[in-house]
């Protein structure tokens, strides 16, 4: 038998004596939520902050899905709180014998307490499986819930999840000021909560984000009325769509030329209800949204996989039937059928049978749903193509064109590879690369023009900063096929420098720099080049954005010199503040407005814009993919009227340096 060394024995004894029952911590009630909020709402940034409101809205939406609530009111209040009211059944307020507490109090203060577990009160649910309301309560500075049932109004108030008193009927005096009396609601639930500033880094409600969430739900649940009011700006909007997801597809395609009317089909398979709407347009981009019980599954899942499989199979079958495809070797790929496609997949399923990948429900995991959706889409599309041959041919022509473009792009790419590989075997001569080979600490500055490029090359820290100067405007890639992009010299050099490929050869793991920084002049031309580059990344290398690798440099707008002291200002307001704060100092005042990066000497460019210790970078992310798609299509697409309307609407807000 092996004997322990003195060191091993000492370590074991020490570990056992230090680790006793007193080290075991039991978090009671809502304590674990406040200790680890990210586990319940994903994060404590702006996204997690707005997720709180979505949870309360979805409780009211669940009442609508159950067939009761027909109206939902959302009010953003001036003090930072928000109120959500519905005209559903109202949370039960009677005593639960087992706990000797009101059902309302249990719902608001106990994790996994609610009416969504036995599958009877709610067949379909979008909430956090019974933890939504209590989690929001735990992470709120204060909360008040009012419930109207049987012509009586009950209420309870909470502080950081703890009830201040038992559930009670409100007084006759308070009754007159209740939301239920004001809106003449017979029954329902109303929740007001103020998020805890100590929990969240951002505590300002973003009206556009809230409007997008509500609009989305109004499209998904045909017939429900949403009323959104912002008391801070006196703004009020109402949302009601009879067409459901068909209306959403039309909305997503409104600035594009559609090839057909929206295609729609739905079917119930066992306990799963499936609705799909799709429409092809003349763009080169895909726009797909998938939902499960009104939850936007941003990372897709089995329902999206089933849709893609059936779409490709159905289009290939019909193309072969009409002779557009001669053999299996000519079959269209999933990439081909994505081009110009807008689609919405909506799955409704009993809450207790839904499987998500994580608590925030970004991806559906139910394996059976893949087969259900595939069957519904295949049957629905086959029937549609047979009954609408003219529409079917337009779709086939569109995807066949995409296939030819794919083959042309591959040929162009092969030609480029023969000359010098896209994947980085021969780096562009204009690239001043860095010495560091670890992508996680390497930076690439994409710089406008040779003048600024020369200054940046002198200013940089060559150990980890690379410089790629661009010669003038790059190609507008909003409506450019991949072969044209690869043939365009500036973009080809950029793709080679990045090293991750493009099109069907993309491999994000081969990205050579984990900070890619767009650095352009602070004038109209610089803004245009920045927009062209953002279009390229959004349309053709979106992984660079979604993985958090794309930034915009923020060079100063002004150099303010008072005597011998030099200050840099990044805005007009900052310039004025510097001048006011230093007005008492002796010496002449001079203010220089930087129009271009080339106006700075290398030392100034390093100090203000490139030095990691003092610079300001703007991280580029995609908060709302549908909104981003719409914006790029409107600003950079071929349709002039939407762009003209945008310019006319926002012209007065623009500050131009011409």
Written account of the structure:
Helix content is 38%, strand content 19%. With 658 residues, the protein is α+β, with helices and mostly antiparallel strands. Strands 1, 2, 5, 6, 7, 8, 9, 10 and 11 form a 9-stranded mixed β-sheet that branches. Helix 4 packs parallel to helix 9 and helix 11 packs parallel to helix 13 (367-387). It is globular. It starts with 5 loop residues before the first helix and ends in an 8-residue tail after the last helix.
Features:
single chain; 658 residues; alpha+beta; Heat Shock Protein 90; Ribosomal Protein S5, domain 2; globular
Strand coverage percent: 15-25%
Report the total helices.
23
Question: Considering the protein shown, what is the CATH homologous superfamily of the largest domain?
Answer: Histidine kinase-like ATPase, C-terminal domain
**Sheet bearing the most strands, described?**
9 strands, mixed
Q: What's the CATH C level of the largest domain?
A: Alpha Beta
The count of domains is: 3
What's the architecture of the largest domain in CATH terms? 2-Layer Sandwich
Could you tell me the CATH topology label of the largest domain. Heat Shock Protein 90
Class inferred from helices and paired strands: alpha+beta
Determine the mean pLDDT: 85
Total strand count, please? 24
Radius of gyration: 29 Å
DSSP helix fraction: 25-40%
What best-fitting shape do the alpha-carbon axes yield?
Answer: globular
Distance between the termini: 86 Å
Low-confidence stretches: 1-16, 19-28, 116-121
């Amino acid at each position: 038998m092996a004997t322990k060394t003195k060191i091993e024995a000492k370590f074991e004894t020490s570990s056992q004596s230090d680790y006793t029952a007193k080290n075991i911590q039991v978090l009671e009630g809502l304590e674990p939520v406040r200790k680890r909020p990210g586990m319940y709402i994903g994060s404590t940034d702006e996204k997690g902050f707005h997720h709180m409101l979505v949870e309360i809205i979805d409780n009211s939406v669940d009442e609508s899905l159950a067939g009761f609530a027909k109206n939902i009111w959302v009010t953003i209040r001036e003090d930072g709180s928000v109120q959500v009211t519905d005209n559903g059944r109202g949370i039960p307020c009677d005593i639960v014998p087992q706990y000797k507490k009101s059902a309302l109090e249990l719902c608001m203060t106990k994790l996994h307490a609610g009416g969504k577990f036995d599958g009877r009160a709610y067949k379909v649910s979008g909430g956090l499986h019974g933890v939504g309301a209590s989690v929001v309560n735990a992470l709120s500075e204060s909360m008040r819930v009012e419930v109207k049932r049987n012509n009586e109004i009950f209420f309870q108030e909470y502080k950081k999840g703890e009830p201040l008193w038992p559930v009670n009927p409100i007084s006759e005096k308070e009754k007159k000021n209740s939301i239920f009396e004001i809106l003449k609601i017979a029954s329902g639930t109303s929740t007001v909560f103020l998020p805890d500033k100590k929990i969240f880094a951002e505590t300002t409600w973003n009206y556009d984000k809230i409007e997008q969430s509500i609009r989305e739900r109004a499209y998904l649940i045909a017939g429900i009325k949403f009323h959104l009011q912002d008391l801070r700006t006196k703004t009020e909007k109402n949302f009601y769509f009879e067409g459901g997801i068909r209306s959403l597809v039309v909305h997503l395609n409104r600035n594009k030329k559609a090839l057909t009317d929206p295609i729609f089909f739905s079917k119930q398979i066992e306990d799963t209800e499936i609705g799909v709407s799709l429409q092809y347009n003349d763009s080169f981009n895909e726009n797909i949204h998938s939902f499960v019980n009104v939850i936007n599954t941003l990372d897709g899942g089995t329902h999206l996989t089933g849709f893609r499989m059936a779409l490709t199979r159905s289009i290939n079958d019909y193309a072969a039937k009409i002779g557009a495809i001669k053999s299996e070797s000519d079959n269209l790929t999933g990439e081909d059928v994505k081009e110009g496609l807008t689609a919405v997949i909506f799955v409704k399923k009993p809450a207790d049978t839904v499987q998500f990948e994580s608590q925030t429900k970004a991806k559906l995991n139910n394996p059976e749903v893949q087969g259900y959706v595939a069957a519904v889409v295949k049957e629905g599309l086959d029937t549609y193509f047979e009954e609408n041959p003219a529409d079917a041919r337009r779709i086939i022509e569109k995807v066949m064109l995409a296939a030819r473009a794919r083959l042309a792009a591959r040929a162009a790419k092969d030609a480029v590879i023969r000359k010098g590989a896209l994947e980085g075997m021969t780096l562009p001569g204009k690239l001043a690369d860095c010495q560091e080979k670890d992508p996680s600490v390497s930076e690439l500055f994409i710089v406008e023009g040779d003048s600024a490029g020369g200054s940046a090359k002198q200013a940089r820290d060559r150990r980890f900063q690379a410089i790629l100067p661009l010669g003038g405007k790059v190609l507008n890639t909003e409506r450019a096929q991949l072969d044209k992009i690869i043939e365009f010299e500036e973009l080809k050099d950029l793709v080679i420098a990045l090293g991750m490929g493009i099109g069907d050869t993309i491999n994000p793991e081969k990205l050579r720099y984990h900070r890619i920084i767009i650095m352009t002049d602070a004038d109209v031309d610089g803004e245009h080049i920045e927009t062209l580059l953002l279009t390229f990344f959004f349309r053709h290398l979106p992984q660079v954005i979604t993985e958090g690798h794309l930034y915009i440099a923020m060079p100063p707008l002004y150099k303010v010199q008072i005597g011998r002291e030099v200050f840099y200002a990044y805005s007009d307001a900052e310039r004025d503040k510097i001048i006011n704060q230093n007005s008492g100092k002796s010496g002449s005042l001079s203010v220089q407005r930087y129009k271009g990066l080339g106006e700075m000497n290398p030392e100034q460019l390093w100090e203000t814009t490139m030095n990691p210790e003092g610079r300001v970078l703007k991280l580029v992310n995609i908060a709302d993919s549908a909104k981003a798609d719409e914006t790029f299509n409107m600003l950079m697409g071929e349709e002039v009227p939407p762009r003209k309307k945008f310019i006319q609407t926002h012209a007065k807000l623009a500050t131009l340096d011409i």
